[in-house]
User: What shape does this take?
Amino acid sequence: MKPFLLLFLLVSIAVNSQEFAKVDQLVLNYPKFSNVANLASKIKKDFSTDKDKARAAFIWLANNINYDLEEYYNPKQRTYSFKYRNEAEKLEKIQLAKDQIINTAFKTKKGVCEEYAQAFKKICDLLQIEAAVISGNVRNSASEIGIIKNTTNHAWNAVKIDHQWIFLDATWAAGFLRNNKWIKSYNNYFYNIPKENIFKTHLPKKSIWILRFGRITPKEFYNQPIYKEVFLDSKATLLNPKQGIISPDKENKIVLKFKNLNATTRIIYNFKGNRIAKKPLKTTTGKTTIITIPNAKRNTELNIFMNGTIAMQYKVH
Assistant: This one.
């Protein structure tokens, strides 16, 4: 599967990062294990709770497995052929195929989303923590707004901690793509993605995972703006427009309305193809901020930046 990677650099200073400071510090000093069982054994020895063990597995993978750009640009079709006599033997052979993927990732320290997700699930299995690999879809570009896809393009995980499922994405936490190069940069936002934000970036294929976290249809998912982590982690809320395809008004303006946008946040914008970003008109009344973009272009894409980092994208008709 080809994941769509975030194209920005920002280390999220989230509450759970502070919560796991001791876990993270210890795991960041772990060796570069070439065997998944050895890593699981080390985690089991060092930590007593499922909460800390799951975090340790995530931190190690996000900081030690590099994204495989060669596989991303030239994906090899993964097909496995085997015979089986019963369901138990079928599941066993499927797991052997997954283990082969994981073992290769640990030896080469490279992988795409499937490697990250399967490796996290395997570590949790070895530690007897309930976890799952989730297949589904993500978006990263305004060109994808409004286009519903019938095939999945990403894999991530859910893990049950203290009787509650949480979502996490080790691939997106590991770094990002810039100028066709992989930039290794840990991003804590993608550990325990806030429930209210999950469907702004991730759409599970299986309905059970949608029902566990809320309600959304594929049409609703693809018709949203493109939300980037810098906006989702800012605590600001988009009030309008919530549709990803917009048009300038009669005065050729685009108006965006936000709630709880930090007064010190620097907002700039540009349209696709424009190298120079501009400052919009910005007015704040109470907790509501209105951003007005004059002389808007049509049939293009609008990029909104927060403090110099791309935060949202729209299609403009």
In short: Residues 87-108 form the longest helix (22 residues). The mean pLDDT is 92. The radius of gyration is 21 Å.
